[in-house]
Amino acid sequence: MPRYQQNIVSVIRHFPKFNPVRGLIQYDSRDVDIADGRLHSLPTHLGEPTWLRGPIPGRPLEPDPDNTGVGRRGVMCPSSVDKTNPHSDDSVVSGDIVVSRASLTYGATCLFENLDFIIESGCWTCILGPSGVGKTTLLRMIAGLAAIPAPGRIDWSGEQNFSQQVSYMAQDDLLMPWLTVAQNIGLGNKLRGKPVDHSNIEKMLGRIGLAGFGDRRPQSLSGGQRQRVALARTLMEDRAITLMDEPFSALDTITRGRLQELAVELLGGRTVLLVTHDPLEALRLGDKVHVMSGRPADISAPITPSGPAPRPVNDPEILHLQGELLGQLSAADQVITANENRPPSNWSNQ
């Protein structure tokens, strides 16, 4: 089965129900068929999300009438209070996301157990860590795309329906090969039965450096161009919460910097969780930067770069923190390597 069919439900978080007989995505009790039933071989069941909405025990909701941008733990998120940002929306839905006692076992290996983690409203939170530590699965758990074994849970302190506030960008671009670039970018509204804003799509194509590419098919694009289209689709969703898994990894250095700046601009005031392997990227964009490490893994206390994002890459503080992060990542990698090279418990010299 082609990978785009295996993962299509991951493209947009807002369509969890799928009819395997009719080959349709269901939304608000309406069946939406695109591309003449090309979705008929999708997986039959991905499970319902395990969202447990409502106030978080022991964490009273604290209004912010002065719009100071202070999170519920009293940490300033500069990107959420940039008064000069014309794209920052004071009406953006707010609420902390709290992961409690999350666990993940792969085969006989416990990747993490009883993991607790808070993603603060209005902040860019970045997670780094060695490959295989569980970062992507944690992101998918938060997105509602992977089950959370009991007694783990995810709470959101906002009052609105969580799943309708989330956009998700996977490592794979997940572009539909039978749709044009423009149609891929506007796919969210298409599936929701809403008008597609072709003018905004054209503007977005210009901003990601793909002006005039709207009528092309994904197979005619390079890997970096495809990733730009996937990013554009995510930004066009304009959700209060954005979850991104290495969204800039396929881009050259100059394009990466430009699109990082675009993402910061268009996601001003939003809650963003970014998984990345690039310490400089995390420090340039993140209000809070964590390292996920260990076996089972835990998440470190945050590094909090000063000043609003995007920060200059040659800033002395950023360069100093990059060295600190590289040290943490090196130690984390040694732990993973040691566990991978450890002989099984029933191993013997005989």
- CATH level 4 superfamily: P-loop containing nucleotide triphosphate hydrolases
Unreliable residue stretches: 1-76, 79-88, 344-350
Based on Cα principal axes, name the global outline. globular
The total domain count is 1
CATH topology: Rossmann fold
Q: State the end-to-end distance.
A: 44 Å
CATH architecture: 3-Layer(aba) Sandwich
Q: Can you count the helices?
A: 9
Largest sheet: 6 strands, mixed
Provide tags for this entry.
single chain, 350 residues, Rossmann fold, 6-stranded mixed sheet, 4-stranded mixed sheet, 9 helices, 13 strands, 19% strand, disordered N terminus
Write the SSE topology.
Blueprint lengths: L2 H4 L10 E3 L4 E4 L2 E3 L18 E3 L43 E10 L2 E11 L4 E5 L6 H9 L9 E4 L9 E4 L11 H5 L1 H6 L5 H10 L15 H15 L3 E5 L7 H14 L4 E5 L3 H7 L2 E7 L2 E3 L16 H26 L9
Parallel strand pairs: 4-8, 7-11, 7-12, 9-10, 10-11
Antiparallel strand pairs: 1-2, 2-3, 5-6, 5-8, 12-13
Helix pairs in contact: 8-9
Describe the structure.
The structure is a single chain. With 350 residues, this protein is an alpha/beta fold. It has one domain (96-341): P-loop containing nucleotide triphosphate hydrolases (Rossmann fold), CATH 3.40.50. The chain has nine helices and 13 strands. The protein is globular.
Short structural summary:
The protein has 350 residues and is an alpha/beta fold. The chain is built from 9 helices and 13 strands.
